[in-house]
Amino acid sequence: MGVHAALAVHPGSGLGAAGRVAGTVAAILRDAVDRLDLVVADTVAESHALMRAARDAGLDALVVLGGDGSMHQGVQFCAGTDIAFGVVPAGTGNDFARALGIPADSVRAASQLADALAHGRSRHVDLGRVAGGEWFATVLCAGFDAAVNARANAMSWPRGPRRYDVAVLAEFASFAARRVVLRMPEETVELEATQLALANEPYYGGGIPICPGADMGDGLLDVTVVGRMSKVDLLRTLPTLRTGKHVHHPAVKTFRARSVHIEGDPSWLAYADGDPAGRLPLEVVAVPNALKVLL
After folding, report:
1. Which residues form the DAGKc domain (predicted)?
2. Which residues are tagged catalytic?
3. 135-288 adopts what CATH topology?
C-alpha cells in the first residue's frame, strides 16, 4: 500500500504567503506520494474537521503549510500517533521549522519534505504539554511576553511583525513583576518575575533564542525566568534576547526539568506556540518522543 499524505493549507498565513505558494507546494509533494489530500481551511474548527476526515481515510503523513499557529494545530492532530508530521514554513515566525533546520523558503522546504516522504525519513522529537490542555512544540511563555502576544492578537493594525513592536510599547508602560513559584521534581524556586518561558526548542517570536540550550530530544523543558528589573534595565536587556546573551544577566535564572508546576498571579496569561494556553496556575510537562517528524 502506498503513502497517503495530506497538505493542510492556511491561506492567510504570512499575510497570504501560504495561499500564494500552495499550488506549487502541492505539486512537489504529489510527486512523492501515492495520494495527497489538500486540506484548505480558514478557521481552526474547519481545519480540525478536515484533518479528522483525512485521518479516518488512513493517513500516513500530514504536512502543514503556514506559520507557527498553523503548525500548532497540526501538532494537536499528530501528537501521540504514528502519523508523520512536516512543516513548510510560510508564516511570520516559523520557529519550529527553524529548530528542525527546515529551509525558510517554502519551495526548498517542500522539496526536502518530498524527498523525506519518498524515502521514509523521519525521527521522533519531544513535545511540551499543558496538563489538561494542548501540546506545544516550541515555547510556552507567561508574563510580559504573553501579555504582548494577547495585545498583538487583538490589534488590527499594523499588520505583520510591526504589530508586536507596537504591542511591546503598549504593554511596557504598565507591566510589573509578580511573585511566581516554580515547583520542579528536583527543586522549588520562589522569585519575583517579569516573564518566564518553558521551551521544547530554543526559539520563539521569529527567531529569538529565549532558551538557547533547549533540545527537542533530551526529554526536558528548558526554563528561563526574567526577574525583577527596572524599566531602564529591561529596555537595555531586550536587544540581548536576539543573541541569547540575556541568560548571563544576573536577574535571569535558568533551569531544566521534566515537569514544572507554575503558581502565581492568576491574571497572568500563558501562550504556547503563540496560542492561548490558559492562566496561572499551570502544570507543564515534557513528553519524550511524542511527535514523529519528517526530515
Report:
1. 1-134
2. 275
3. Tumour Suppressor Smad4 (2.60.200)
